[in-house]
Each structure stands twice: as C-alpha cells, then as structure tokens.
Amino acid sequence: MPRALKRFFLYLSVTGIVIWTIAPYLWLIISSLSLKIDLLTVPLRWIPPRLTLENYYSLFFMRGSESVNAQLFFKSLGNSAIISLTTMFICLILGVFAAYAIARLHFKGSNMMVLVMMATQLVPPIVLVVPLYVIMRKMDLLDKHIGLILVDISIVLPLVIWLMRGYFASIPSELEDAARIDGCTHLGALFRVILPLAGPGLVSVMIFAFIAAWNEYLYAFIFTNVDAKTLPVLIGEFSTKLGLEYLRIAAAGVLASLPPVLLALIFQRFIIRGLTSGAIK
Length: 281
Prior knowledge:
Layout: H1 3-32, H2 36-39, H3 54-60, H4 70-104, H5 110-119, H6 129-138, H7 145-170, H8 173-181, H9 186-197, H10 199-215, H11 218-223, H12 231-235, E1 239-240, E2 243-244, H13 246-280
Antiparallel strand pairs: 1-2
C-alpha cells in the first residue's frame, strides 16, 4: 500500500474518532442554546434558526414553580468544587508517596500489593453501595462532604498510585543515586530530583483525579440528600410536572463541564512546557 494512501486512511480514522468524540458535546451546546420547538423539527437541524440564552437564564433566576432554584444550583456547584478539589489534593499527596515507595523501595510483597490494589477496581461500584451505605450511616457520614470525599478517595487513589508508579519507574534511578551520594535521603531525592522531573505526570494525574471526582454520580446520588448534593446529581433531578426539562439539563450540563474542560486546556500548556524542560535538562 502506498505511503500516501496509508496516511489518508490514518487521517480519515483520526477525523472519525474526533467527530465521534466531539459530536455529543457539540449537540449538548446546541441544545442549550435552542428552543424546544426547534429541536423537535424534522429533519433535524444542527444549526438552530433561533439562538436563545433562556435556558441559562432560567438556571439563575426564579420564574414560578417550574424554575430551578438558583441557590440550590450554586450550592451544588460549591459542593462539587469542595469535594473534587479536596479529593484531588489528598489523592495527589498520598499517591505520590505510595507510588514512590512502590517504584523505588523494593520490599517483599510490593508487586502483590499493586495487583491487589488494582484488583479492587474490577469490582462493580453497585456491589459496594449497600455495605458503604451501612458503614456511612453508622459513622454519621451520610449527606456530608467528608463522607463523599472518603468514598471518592477510595476510587481515585489506586489509579493515581498506578499512574505515578509507572511515571516514577520511567525516570532513571541514576539521578536519584547521584543525589543520595551527595547526602540526600529518599525523601530529599524525591522532592529535589524526582518531583521536578515528574511535573508533567503530576499535572496529568491531578487533572485525572479532579475529573474523576467531579463526574462521580452513583455514590453522590445515593449518599447525599441536600447538604452535600453535587452538581451531576442536581442536573439529573431537573424535572417538572410535564417531565424532564431537557433544555435546562443541557444548559446545566454545559456549565458543569466547563471546570474540567478549562482545567485541561489551561494545564495543557504546562504539560507541554514540562515535557520540553525535561528534555532540555
């Protein structure tokens, strides 16, 4: 097969994957800016003839009993931010130390520990709902930030350790040995040598941990009621006597997706910069 033809099929495949990935999000944005009658027209119009911000306006301003409570929306947004950021920082701190110990301090049973830790990720989340609910009820953690944070940590931390372990293992141990010869301890080598070189990995893991905690729905839906209700749970409850408010759900979905999307776009520059500086060093 000619090289040009291979490149054509490669670009065609990549274009198809991009369209398949972005199309649902584009339709979410289009729906949030459309009127309901325009979405029900046949044939379907990707570009609505009339654009409106009414769906966003209804999220923040009360208009009768069918409108969404703006205070509840902002409260759920704050809950999601608190839970996601706290989970991200705790998993990053604990994950770095655990991954470094597994990657560098070879001890008996370390490989088995990693396998057991990752095997827990194979358990379907729905299986753990009942025992977790009983434990959290006895510990008075239902509908509280700390309860959902602990549950999210149990989900995100093993994956953070797995990713950081692989990244630490890719850094040459000779750099660390040189620091040890100069008098550094294991922790000193970690903070002065390993972490500066692992900047891109830290940023990637940080973004992953935040998005995983931000998008978590099942446990947040079951373990929260009002005080700790997160934004994904609130969006799923947008309904009226006439049924679901699909347009408001679309508008709220766009707003809920902005923090992780913006976080990835902002830190993308730092990831590229970290890779470049690491290569120069």
